[in-house]
Amino acid sequence: LNLLEPITxxxxxSRRTWGSISDHLRLEHDVSTPGPELTTSDxxxxxxxxxxxxxxxxxxxxxxxxxxxxxxxxxxxxxxVKIELSCRLADKYSSMKILRVTWKKGNETIKxxxxxENSWSIQLTISENRKLGSYxxxxxxxxxxxxxxxxxxxxxxxxxxxYEGDSAILICKSHSYTPIAWTWYMTNGSEQIAINxxxxxDKYVIDKADPNVTHLKILKxxxxxxxxxxxxxxxxxxxxxxxxxxxxxxLMVPLKPFLAIVAEVVILITIIFVFExxxxxxxxxx
Amino acid sequence: xxxxxxxxxxPPDGGWGWVVxxxxxxxxxFAYAFPxxxxxxxxxxxxxxxxxxxxxxxxxxxMLATTYGAGPISSILVNRYGxxxxxxxxxxxxxxxxxxxxxxxxxxxxYICVGFITGxxxxxxxxxxxxxxxxxxxxRRPIAxxxxxxxxxxxxxxxxxxxxxxxxxxxxxxxFLILGAILLHCCVAGAxxxxxxxxxxxxxxxxxxxxxxxxxxxxxxAIEMDSPTNIPKETKTEEEEEKGCCEKVxxxxxxxxxxxxxxxxxxxxxxxMFLGFFAPIVFLAPYAKHIGIDEYSAAFLLSxxxxxxxxxxxxxxxxxxxxxxxxxxQYFFSFSIAFNGACHLLCPxxxxxxxxxxxxxxxxxxxxxxxxxxxxxxxxLVGGTRFTSAVGLVTIAECCxxxxxxxxxxxxxxxxxxxxxxxxxxxxxxxxxxxFLFIMNYYNYHMVAKEEKKRTAKEEDPKPVRTENKGRNNxxxxxxxxxxxxxxxxxxxERLKKEANGT
Lengths: 286, 503
Fold this sequence. Notes:
The complex is a heterodimer.
Chain A: E1 7-8, E2 13-18, E3 30-31, E4 44-45, E5 55-63, E6 81-89, E7 101-105, E8 108-109, E9 114-115, E10 119-126, E11 135-139, E12 153-154, E13 160-163, E14 168-174, E15 181-188, E16 191-194, E17 204-207, E18 213-218, E19 227-235, E20 238-249, H1 252-285
Chain B: H1 16-37, H2 42-49, H3 53-69, H4 71-81, H5 83-101, H6 107-136, H7 141-149, H8 151-183, H9 185-191, H10 203-224, H11 245-252, H12 261-274, H13 279-290, H14 295-321, H15 329-346, H16 352-382, H17 387-416, H18 420-458, H19 463-477, H20 487-500
């Protein structure tokens, strides 16, 4: 999952610009396969989830033709928001004659485009799932602009390692947005089975202390518990998943290097003492 | 001049000594770097046991406190058994501590296994390593100290990625198990610490030696009190029983050091210095993040610090060994402490990443300079033989301020919301400590020179010994002022001459 990870600002209207970026943005409700990483250093997000006054956010893409024909951007939304998307040509094109600029949602053309000197923008109010989608800004058929996604759920890239008989804790965090509910899934073969902690109290414990964070504690680990786990967060506008991998090892695994190192230490010490005795004998003879 | 006849601990200044330096490098490296290195595991352990960050941080604090606080125990054991068995025992304790930590089921057990047992093991590593350098080196001791102390940054740079690798592959439990095995290398380092009286390897001889040296030290103490009638004590035979319980206690841990002027100066200055010594390192990365630098660049600052530190320590050792600096090494030490303090005072002026990089470079340099000479100056003041007890007493006193430093800094940061007060506090404390040491050592050098003159005037030696003395005095005159550290060497040689002459 790759989302714009905004930094908080205090303004309620924030203007964001980014240069030509060729990350692929897909607008989907359920993003289950991670995409490429986005660099998000120049983004700010205002986290002001006030339902009566939806957030107003502007996004602007500068088209400079450097990265080829399309620029795509992922924008993460957690709740209802007013959004303005604008498409601006880089200065070097300002003298170029622009014949046509169109904004489309999917395949539908959007009629109300605000045009300023070199930029074309549309305003949207995203208040429900339907409005999420891919919005395209086409300039002479060249540039594309996609919008939307879901808030990032942070899982972990590296597997959590634990041992048989021990317990493990899997943690998922949601940055910026507070989910309404969390669900955990376990992969069995190719299926995903929801984990119900009230059914198997001595095996799974789900901790809900902090709404932004969820803990899944798995007790009495066995080899079968090895595999991928998913934590899913439900938001107003959709759901988002994070993936975690749990690796179960036996005690033999670290024991081998341990014994190897101990053997090495013993050998070294023996060599040192033998060498010392030998050089003392040499000295005595000399 | 080396006198091989008889069980005399005259420092060889080379040969096997460099192997000992290597062993001390490893031992000291583990002792200083290990508490910092295992911080990588804390996040995971914190989640596992469901505790707060400060509860986990106690593990490091307990470890550090034990390493410094168990100094006197280390000193007593070394006084009794010599460095080698103590270091081997220390290595075993560390190994046992970490292996048992791998099977812990509560945070309290972690405190005991990682904090207490491993900390004790590291204490039994640190002090003897430093002590044995004093036994093996005299003329080249600053270099040896600088090289051995360089172990700390090198080990830290090695342990950090190693710990990360272990953690990614074995989880925290497996990593602790393997780290236990790695810590056993301290035993290997200990095996290298051959007792100095080569050829007479019996422990009994060694303790007799040490008994003699203690007698000499007691008499040297009396000399400093300006009572020349005690000089004949040097010629007492070694079998004579030490009278009084004070002297018996002093055999294990030399409390008479508290009457030693140089020792007291060092103690007060260092205890003050440690109040501001470690806090900036602890808060450098958080400060960088606070002013907007990203996490990796902030971590890189610490790497820069470690690399500069690594290079600075041996170089400081070489500089401190040069004939211009060695006699005035105390001034050099005070200067480096004050320099360190000045760096901290200027840090708030550093703006942006470049400024912080420059600060890290200078901080690494100053930190390395101070650490390289930390034990060298103490040896210089009290002499190689009493150093064993001195180091134990000093570390337990420093233990308090070392532990207090970062929390006080943290408190300042939390109260004012700004890091600059912490830097100002650390800088001010260190500049104060440096100045104090500078002034007091000037006074000390002055007093030592006065006493020296009085003593050579009052000595009544038979002629051959006196000419020998004069010969040695010529060599000593290369150093403008004689630290008391050269006293044992001269006195031993005097005594041996007397024995040889049949007195």
